[in-house]
């Protein structure tokens, strides 16, 4: 006779978004993250001048709809389940200030890939929040076996990518995913690329250099062992480049740089066409870059057409969409990636994140002493407006300007 315990009953669905709950949530969220000063600045065209300092704000910046929804649902979960333990898989978004606020509400953080012990410690009375990036299929399934109430805040744009890669798996098409292999969203997408019966295949490429390695293999073949070593931890179990690079569909982490994703798509298509005597039948591509990510990139390109002395990019250091704004900016002018206003130590010192060294650094002489200084400011989709206001005020303070 089996001694296995019966699985816990599936929890009843709970509507978190009732008018009463959401009105209270909205008031609390606004008190934490809203900035009337930033809203006024946006309303006046994103340009302000205080004495000899001009601030130019990108037309699109900060929280996107998906981030706002995820935060709203986390706050709502705390209100609807006031006495229950609530856990969050990883981070709700990639912003340490927001995640600290979530923790202050008594919401506990689990790893994005919880240990077996952490899963076993969950009970049917607990609530588990899936973040905006989504979570791997196996992780969500493990949480469900414990009978927990799940609050899924996965962004709709992310789920659109999942739909595409599942379709690829069904049609035995390998998904090449443009993304960061260790990023929560890409890991979740890769799990969906395996398909409902784990019969799909995927390969994750970070950049154009890795794409060229794949294209060379598509055209000419190569050393399979060396190829698999290079892409260790970035391909599906049992991936065989000789078999699984025949039919390819390109997908992406939604927060990558659109121009790079499009170039990856172009190069892979070209490689397949060369191999297949001019036919592109074994290639497919869907535009799955997040609309908000693209809006912020486009707005930054427009901002960079203005005459700026430097650019400040505000956001969490582990935010992919924010780091791509930094990449765009630093190609044209001095660009500083800061977490918040506290990084602006003085008029001579700034603490910032170096995206190339992947480490925080302190640099000197970042703020030019000019009679008229123009500073551009933008922020990633996970940065709240109050942090942008704090940064603007700190710049004005360091310049000796009046803060209104």
Structural class: alpha/beta
Order of helix and strand elements from N to C terminus: HHEEHEHEHEHEHEHEHHHEHEHEHEEEEH
Radius of gyration: 23 Å
Task: Provide the CATH superfamily of the largest domain.
Answer: 4-hydroxy-3-methylbut-2-enyl diphosphate reductase, catalytic domain
How many helix segments?
A: 15
What is the name of the CATH topology of the largest domain?
Cobalt-precorrin-4 Transmethylase, domain 1
Task: Describe how the helices and strands are arranged.
Layout: H1 19-33, H2 36-43, E1 47-50, E2 53-57, H3 65-80, E3 86-89, H4 96-104, E4 107-110, H5 116-120, E5 127-130, H6 137-145, E6 149-152, H7 156-170, E7 174-178, H8 184-193, E8 202-205, H9 208-220, H10 224-230, H11 241-244, E9 248-252, H12 258-275, E10 283-285, H13 291-303, E11 310-314, H14 320-330, E12 335-338, E13 349-354, E14 359-364, E15 373-379, H15 385-398
Parallel strand pairs: 2-15, 3-4, 3-5, 5-6, 7-8, 7-9, 9-10, 11-12, 11-15
Antiparallel strand pairs: 1-2, 13-14
Q: Concise description?
A:
This protein has helices spanning 19-33, 36-43, 65-80, 96-104, 116-120, 137-145, 156-170, 184-193, 208-220, 224-230, 241-244, 258-275, 291-303, 320-330, 385-398, and strands spanning 47-50, 53-57, 86-89, 107-110, 127-130, 149-152, 174-178, 202-205, 248-252, 283-285, 310-314, 335-338, 349-354, 359-364, 373-379. It is of the alpha/beta class.
